[in-house]
Amino acid sequence: MVGKIQRLGFLLPTTRLDDEAYSFSVPGIGKLVSAIKKTRSLILNTLKRTKYKEMHEQQLKKAKLKHSPFQLEFHLTDMEGCGLIRRTKVTSGVLVALVDK
Q: Can you tell me where the transmembrane regions are (predicted)?
């Protein structure tokens, strides 16, 4: 079983000589993290260019997310959870704003 998991790339043998140990790995995670970081910076730069550092969510949805396979909602939820943005319901929809640090 361990051999099969190794072949799939989820377990990597360590270089310790005294015993046999493994490290857990997630193949392809680098591309995912890179795509998320690029999309985050795209959204942050878009918000920074506005006068009050805020924008309606509908306006943000018009932007093309060329680096990410995920929808804008995923990235906004992620960024809100990280404390980078704040979403506020207003009468005209949802307002996305940069968090003051």
A: none
